[in-house]
Amino acid sequence: MTLIPQKILFRTDGLVQLTSNEYLVLAGTLHGIHAITNRLSPTGSSSGAQVIEGEFFKLTILLTATGTKFVLLTSLTETAAESILQKVYDSIYAV
């Protein structure tokens, strides 16, 4: 069983809500891309893709020590995505 919790923080006009199946496809695609980029490092010590930029979006990935991936999809102009993901992680796993 795959658990893909997601939360829409801000809705932008024109965006379509994804179905559960589309979230599964998106997660599977992201996992594959991340696994491939993990192997592509010339130094052999890569943790995989951290940021993927498209024409109209930026996808930022935080990989935890346990292998859980936190993903934030933002506009290209967002500069605090990494710190936002770290705050989300800290708020969930704070001791």
Automatic annotation (TrEMBL):
Name of the protein this chain belongs to: Trafficking protein particle complex subunit
Taxonomic classification: Eukaryota, Fungi, Dikarya, Basidiomycota, Agaricomycotina
Top-level taxon of the source organism: Eukaryota
Biological process per Gene Ontology, one example term: endoplasmic reticulum to Golgi vesicle-mediated transport
Similarity remark: Belongs to the TRAPP small subunits family. TRAPPC4 subfamily.
Pfam entry (one): Sybindin
Listed GO CC annotations: endoplasmic reticulum; Golgi apparatus; TRAPP complex
UniProt xrefs under InterPro entries: Longin-like_dom_sf, TRAPPC
Gene3D superfamilies: 3.30.450.70
Location within or outside the cell: Endoplasmic reticulum; Golgi apparatus, cis-Golgi network; Golgi apparatus
UniProt KW keywords: Endoplasmic reticulum, ER-Golgi transport, Golgi apparatus, Transport
UniProt xrefs under SMART domains: Sybindin
Summary of subunit composition and partner proteins: Part of the multisubunit transport protein particle (TRAPP) complex.
